[in-house]
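Look over both lines before class:
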Amino acid sequence: MSVSQDSALAIYPPDLWDALAQELKSPLPGPDQRALARTLYSMSETFEPDGQGRITLGMEQRRVTGIETPSTAVVIGMGSRVEIWPEARWDSYNADAQGRFTEFADRVISGR
C-alpha cells in the first residue's frame, strides 16, 4: 500500500507493484522519476488484514491523505488496484467526475 494520484492511498497487487518498481529502476533516473520513486517508496507499507479483512493505516498515510481519527474512509476498486479516500473528499471528487463522465469517456476512450 502506498500513496497514489489525487492524494489517495492505493493497494497494489504484487505483480502490479513489481511492474511499477521495474518502471522506476533506471540506473540514472531523471528528476521526475526520482521524485516519484522517493514519494512512492517512502510512503509504502506492507500490511496484513485482520480476521475481518480490515487494515490499519499508518500515521503518515493518514496525514497525507487527510483521513483523520475518527473518520470514515471509502474503499473503491480501480480495476488493477484498490484506492482508499477520506469520505468527504471522495464524495466531492465523485460528484464532479460523475457530472463529467461523458467528457472523460470521449477523451479517454474515443481519443477526442
About this structure: Strands lie at 2-3, 9-11, 73-77, 82-86. Residues 2-86 form a domain with the Chemotaxis protein chec fold (CATH 3.40.1550.20).
